């Protein structure tokens, strides 16, 4: 404490001496003078005094005492001197170190300054009043001014555009600016923050800016290029849609007229040529459709729907659609949907149908004997469903297996020449499946067949979580004999076993005959494909041993006469529901004189709509001629309108004359007034007058889902996809009649 105080006093005194050297000198001189004067005066006056009697003894004592005192003083002084010298040496060493340190600091400062100055980034410091206190070379160069000219000024660049701004947790503000400089406009990304260097001093603004002009411009150029590419892509798609529409219109004419020509009396040679014209036209049409679809998918225009659909129905529809093609090649086609799967799932049914139709179509195309099976099972992941398309065809060589999924690739040229095709089908299918979040895998052995596995995630629909669509029969403890061969038979056996039945499958008629008396059978299923004679004989034998005797027919053999020994028939490819319904019947109910399963289509097909008055709105002359010929041949009266406006007028005139049309077939793309608008006006008029609802069918070459929605939204009852032929038209008219839209 005391030490500290003395030290502080000393420091203060030293500081005082340093600050006021003259005053200190005066004080010191005064003190020396008064001490000397006091001592001299004392000595003189002492020796002169009257009563200072000289005593040599006392004098000697005094003198020696004084001498000793002087010696002591000298010794002290010399010690102090030594001490001071030592301190001085330490100080000198210290001083040296300090000089070195100072030097280093100077060097470091110099380095830091030059680093700052030569930074590529802009660095500028400003005081609290915005005056520049430091600016580096980059800043000066961009400003086009010397540093000395900038320091102390409030210089700043002109702002052209202010970008986004953000603040970091540390308080640093980050923002982009576009500024005007003598070198042109530049984009600078700034980082700015206030720094307080000395307590009590106002804070200083430190700004560091990076020139990001190149980056920003590249980004802008990229985004411009992307916009342009998008626009170009849209234009391309529009062009493609237009072009394909333009190509399809005359192609419809070629196919339609070819069909009409085939209906006339021709020599066999002419028939061959006309048929070739029609087939080529159809091949070209398929190619155009595929190209259009592919380019649409490539352009990212594949919008998938998420709607509930029935899995069973989809698969059975696909098999039934392909059955005529398979049966024409004497191939079997069968489907099996695992009953563990939920009945209704959510996804895009139309696109899934497209993929499966393509795979199953290929399977039929590349198979010469045997058959094609469509098996639907739970996949390996939860919610995943696996669609297996299996064939017994030519197979695919291992090296071609990944290649065929690429566009325009076929397994090998010889195959392509024999079977035709574009090589687009699998490429399209794979893209669709990938978009659904699934995958297609392939297993194949040349000569043995192929299995394509489409695994897609399809969530079960809430509505479909209930019990199955049809009650599955309880076959527990019941024996069923299946006399058949091939893919479908094995799938039927699998299904029967799932229902609890003891199934015995034999493919040989004589073995079957021997087996029949072995026990009492709940049902015997015999495939007509074994040959009519054999089948009828087996039926007779089975009378005594089986309550139910069913024969399996193909759609082509269904009209053949069947022996009375049978209690019913089932049409291949079998619907699970039909099989279940048949087997659930008690033998008494199943009358022996054949109660055929109600074929849905035949009732509609059996009553063709005759003699309707039909308005056809079609701007293409050839298509109009085609429609007129087709409809007149079917016995209808046809009026043609060449555009929407004319169609509307004709419809109004007929309605007010009291002879309204029974049906309107409306082309969608027409000049003046298109089909959608014409329909809307007709519907509006009907609503206003409370008149009869005229069925309107769209005529379109466009298969886009959104176009179909537009048709329904406008109030149309359905649509007909071009190219049209007699069967399609007949079917559509019959369909309308069945749904009682048409008064026949
Ligand atoms: P396309 O059938 O129009 O030629 P795809 O893309 O559908 O085009 O098929 C590509 C190729 O893959 C076919 O040409 C054929 O060589 C081969 N391929 C596809 N499916 C099968 C199959 N089930 N069996 C044998 N080969 C097949």
Ordered list of secondary-structure elements with their pairings:
Elements: H1 2-19, H2 21-48, H3 56-118, E1 122-126, E2 132-135, H4 137-143, H5 147-150, E3 158-167, E4 173-181, E5 184-195, E6 204-211, H6 213-263, H7 268-298, E7 307-310, H8 311-328, E8 332-337, E9 344-347, H9 349-365, E10 371-378, E11 384-391, H10 413-419, H11 425-435, E12 439-445, E13 449-457, E14 459-460, E15 479-483, H12 487-498, E16 502-506, H13 509-515, E17 521-527, H14 532-542, E18 546-554, E19 568-572, H15 576-584, H16 600-606, E20 613-617, H17 621-633, E21 637-641, H18 644-656, E22 663-667, H19 675-689, E23 696-700, H20 705-714, E24 718-721, H21 726-738
Parallel strand pairs: 8-10, 15-16, 15-17, 17-18, 18-19, 20-21, 20-22, 22-23, 23-24
Antiparallel strand pairs: 1-2, 1-6, 3-4, 4-5, 5-6, 7-9, 9-14, 10-11, 11-13, 12-13
Helix pairs in contact: 1-2, 6-7, 6-17, 7-11, 8-9, 9-11, 16-21, 18-19
Bound molecules: adenosine-5'-diphosphate.
What share of residues is helical?
Answer: 40-55%
Helix-strand makeup class: alpha/beta
- CATH superfamily heading of the domain at 307-465: Histidine kinase-like ATPase, C-terminal domain
User: What's the average pLDDT?
Assistant: 84
Distance separating the two termini: 125 Å
Characterize the main sheet: 6 strands, antiparallel
Ligand list: adenosine-5'-diphosphate
DSSP strand count: 24
Give a written overview of the molecule:
It is a single chain. With 744 residues, the protein is α/β, with parallel strands linked by helices. Among the domains are: 122-211, Beta-Lactamase (2-Layer Sandwich); 307-465, Heat Shock Protein 90; 479-584, Rossmann fold (3-Layer(aba) Sandwich); 613-734, 3-Layer(aba) Sandwich (Rossmann fold). Helix content is 49%, strand content 20%. The strands form 5 sheets. It has a 6-stranded antiparallel beta sheet. It has a 5-stranded mixed beta sheet with strand order 8-10-11-13-12, with helices on both faces. A 5-stranded parallel beta sheet has the order 16-15-17-18-19, sandwiched between helices. A hairpin with an 8-residue loop joins strand 5 (184-195) and strand 6 (204-211). Helix 1 packs across helix 2 and helix 9 packs antiparallel against helix 11 (425-435). The relative contact order is 0.05. Bound molecules: adenosine-5'-diphosphate.
């Amino acid at each position: 404490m005391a030490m500290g105080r003395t030290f502080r006093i000393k420091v203060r005194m030293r500081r005082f001496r340093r600050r006021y050297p003259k005053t200190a000198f005066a004080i010191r001189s005064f003190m020396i003078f008064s001490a000397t004067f006091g001592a001299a005066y004392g000595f003189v006056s002492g020796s002169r005094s009257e009563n200072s009697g000289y005593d040599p003894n006392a004098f000697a004592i005094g003198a020696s005492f004084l001498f000793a005192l002087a010696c002591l003083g000298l010794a002290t002084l010399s010690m102090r001197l030594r001490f001071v010298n030592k301190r001085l040496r330490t100080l000198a060493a210290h001083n040296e170190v300090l000089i070195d340190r100072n030097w280093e600091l100077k060097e470091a400062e110099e380095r830091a300054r030059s680093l700052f100055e030569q930074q590529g980034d802009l660095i500028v410091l400003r005081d609290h009043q915005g005056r520049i206190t430091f600016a580096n070379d980059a800043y000066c160069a961009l400003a086009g001014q010397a540093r000395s000219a900038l320091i102390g000024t409030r210089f700043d660049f002109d702002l052209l555009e202010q970008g986004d701004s953000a603040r970091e947790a540390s308080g640093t503000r980050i923002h982009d600016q576009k500024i005007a400089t003598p070198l042109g406009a530049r984009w600078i990304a700034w980082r700015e923050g206030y720094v307080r260097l000395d307590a009590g001093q106002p804070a200083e603004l430190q700004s560091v800016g990076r020139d990001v002009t190149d980056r920003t411009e590249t980004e802008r150029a990229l985004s411009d290029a992307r916009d342009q590419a998008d626009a170009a892509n849209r234009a391309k798609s529009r062009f493609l849609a237009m072009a394909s529409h333009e190509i399809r219109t005359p192609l419809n004419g070629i196919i339609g007229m070819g069909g009409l020509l085939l209906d006339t009396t021709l020599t066999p040679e002419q028939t061959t040529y006309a048929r070739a014209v029609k087939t080529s036209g159809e091949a070209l049409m398929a190619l155009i459709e595929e190209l259009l679809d592919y380019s649409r998918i490539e352009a990212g225009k594949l919008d998938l729907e998420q709607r509930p659909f029935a899995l069973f129905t989809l698969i059975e529809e696909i098999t039934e659609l392909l059955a005529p093609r398979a049966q024409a090649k004497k191939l079997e086609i069968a489907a099996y949907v695992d009953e563990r799967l939920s009945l209704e799932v959510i996804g895009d049914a139309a696109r899934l149908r497209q993929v499966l139709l393509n795979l199953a179509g290929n399977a039929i195309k590349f198979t010469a004997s045997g058959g094609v099976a469509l098996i639907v099972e739970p996949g390996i992941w939860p919610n995943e469903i696996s669609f297996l398309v299996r064939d017994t065809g030519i197979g695919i060589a291992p090296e071609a297996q990944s290649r065929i999924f690429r566009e325009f690739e076929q397994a090998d040229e010889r195959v392509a020449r024999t079977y035709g095709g574009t090589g687009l089908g699998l490429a399209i299918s794979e893209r669709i499946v990938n978009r659904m979040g699934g995958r297609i895998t392939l297993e194949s052995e040349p000569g043995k067949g192929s299995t394509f596995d489409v695994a897609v995630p399809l969530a079960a629909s809430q509505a479909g979580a209930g019990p199955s669509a049809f009650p599955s029969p309880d076959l527990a403890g019941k024996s069923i004999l299946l006399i058949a061969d091939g893919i479908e038979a094995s799938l039927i056996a699998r299904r029967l076993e799932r229902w609890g039945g003891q199934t015995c499958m034999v493919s040989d008629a004589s073995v079957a005959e021997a087996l029949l008396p072995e026990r009492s059978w709940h049902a015997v299923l015999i495939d007509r494909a074994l040959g009519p004679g054999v089948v009828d004989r087996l039926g007779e034998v089975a009378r005594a041993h089986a309550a139910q005797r069913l024969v399996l027919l193909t759609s082509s053999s269904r009209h053949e006469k069947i022996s009375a020994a049978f209690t019913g028939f089932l049409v291949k490819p079998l619907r699970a529901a039909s099989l279940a319904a048949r087997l659930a019947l008690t033998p008494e109910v199943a009358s022996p004189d054949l109660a055929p399963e109600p074929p849905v289509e035949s009732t509609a097909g059996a009553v063709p709509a005759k003699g309707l008055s039909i308005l056809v709105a079609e701007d293409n002359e050839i298509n109009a001629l085609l429609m007129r010929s087709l409809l007149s041949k079917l016995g209808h009266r046809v009026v043609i309108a060449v555009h929407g406006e004319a169609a509307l007028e004709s419809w109004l005139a007929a309605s007010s004359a009291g002879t309204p049309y029974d049906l309107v077939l409306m082309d969608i793309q027409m000049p003046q007034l298109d089909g959608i608008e014409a329909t809307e006006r007709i519907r509006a008029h009907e609503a206003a007058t409370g008149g009869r609802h005229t069925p309107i069918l769209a005529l379109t070459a466009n298969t886009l889902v959104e176009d179909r929605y537009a048709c329904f939204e406008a109030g149309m009852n359905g649509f007909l996809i071009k190219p049209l032929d007699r069967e399609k038209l007949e079917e559509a008219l019959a369909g309308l009649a069945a749904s009682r839209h048409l008064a026949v």
